[in-house]
Amino acid sequence: MGNLIVDGKRTDGRGPLDLRPLRIEVGTIKNAAGSSYIEHGKNKIYVAVYGPKDSHRFGTSLERAVIRCRYHMSPFSTEERKSPQPSRREIEISKVIRNALEPSLILDEFPKTLLDVFIEVLQSDGGSRSASITAASVALADAGIPMRDLVQAVAVGKVDGTLVVDLNDKEDKEGEVDLPVAFMLNENMITLLQMDGKLTVDEFKEAVKLAREAAVKIKEKQKEALGRKYFGMVDEK
Amino acid sequence: MIKSVLPGDLVAQGNYRVYSNVIKADSEYYSMFVGKAEVEDSRVTVIRLSGPYIPRVGDQIIGMVTDIQPLAVTVDINSYVNGYIMANAFFKRRIDPSKQDINEKVRIGDLLNVRVSRIERGRDVLLSLGPKWKVSGDAIFYISPAKASYLLRSKSNIINRIRAMTGTGITMGANGIMVARGGKDSIKKLNDIIKIIESHNELYELEGALKEALK
């Protein structure tokens, strides 16, 4: 601790409020109903959506589609090999991502069906859950699932006593606070908020404000990606 | 006015009598899909560019028989839900399953030209048979249901022009299943046209590309 910000620059050369490079592609997996690929910093993540499909399994709802979300890190995605079995962390993140996406989706159009969202992390950096949410929302839009708004997520943290946006792996592990937040900007709604560490009330308010500003930028990238696939240009509107 | 929209985009403000594929919040209408928004005098609608076939009563679709029971036939309609046809429909009267065998009328794998009659939440979709309900052909194509709906409602009657240009007989359903009849060359030409349709996501580009190919 104490050397993560030097002369106002973070370990990767960014300022405290800068986002890492972000690239999103849509329709990367042919067999999926909808798919996307995201590179956010060193994160490389594929998302594939299958369904909605008819289901008579236990746990399906007569009123709406049920989402099954699987977040998985490939064995080669981390510095040291990771067991391919789903870990406690992956099971938790799968649930967290599902909960972050569900408020944006209009699922009562598809009663008694299942919607599978597969998230495969090929290379992990800090903020893989946030990147996964951002990419999964785009993949769901690509699958034609009715939705209220796209969901964007970003982690804000506290490093060397300074609030920083979009934590990388080192800041995530060695920083004082990690605060992933997901937004539906149109509805002014937060669909995910987790916090690891301690912030004062004022710091917390400021952190959420910074996350919102970052989400606006991320939403632009989501729109560009969808626009490229469907309208053939970055911004036709 | 037509514009490209993404989920959550504001499509229109005001009071419109009819609206589809949008969410209404007070007097604002937001898109639920990636699509093309059409705003007219009293109507706001978004034409979806992706997604599964969502059955609507009255849709004319093509389905494949997947199961036959004494009183009903199950039909795959290229959707998240199956369709079914009551056995009576094939005989045009009430039947006694111990005396009449539905297998005489239909077999598993048969393609049927049907209409969506009734939709009940959480249940299979009830279908009815049209006058020429049995469809046969030399090739079957699956087109994205969103594009199929665009082709069928196109004012320039693209399907008829594809028929004339390729020399094929085409039966197409709103669920994206197209059955084609014709010689080897005609089917090959049609296959090329289908490739153009599948490779264009921008509907207005698609219309241009098809016009070019159909010249």
What is shown here, in short?
The complex is a heterodimer of chains A (237) and B (215). Helix content of chain A is 28%, strand content 30%. Chain A is built from four helices and eleven strands; from the N terminus they run ββββββαβαββαββα.
CATH class of the largest domain in chain B, anyone? Answer: Mainly Beta
Helix count, DSSP H or I runs of 4 or more residues of chain B: 5
**Helix-strand string of chain A:** EEEEEEHEHEEHEEH
**CATH architecture annotation of the largest domain in chain B:** Beta Barrel
Percent of residues in helices of chain A: 25-40%
The level of helicity of chain B is 10-25%
Q: What is the CATH topology of the largest domain in chain B?
A: OB fold (Dihydrolipoamide Acetyltransferase, E2P)
- CATH homologous superfamily designation of chain A: GHMP Kinase, N-terminal domain
Tell me what you see in this structure.
Chain A is α+β, with helices and mostly antiparallel strands. Chain A is 28% helix and 30% strand. Chain A has four helices and eleven strands. A five-stranded mixed sheet of chain A has the order 3-4-5-7-6. In chain A, a hairpin with a 2-residue loop joins strand 1 and strand 2. In chain A, helix 1 packs across helix 2 and helix 2 (128-142) packs parallel to helix 4 (201-231). The longest helix of chain A has 31 residues, at 201-231. Chain A is globular and about 55 Å long. The mean pLDDT of chain B is 85. Helices cover 24% and strands 37% of the residues of chain B. Chain B has a five-stranded mixed barrel. In chain B, strands 1-6-7-3 form a four-stranded mixed sheet, with helices on one face. A three-stranded antiparallel sheet of chain B has the order 2-5-4, with no helix packed on it. Chain B contains five helices and 15 strands. Chain B is α+β, with helices and mostly antiparallel strands and 215 residues long.
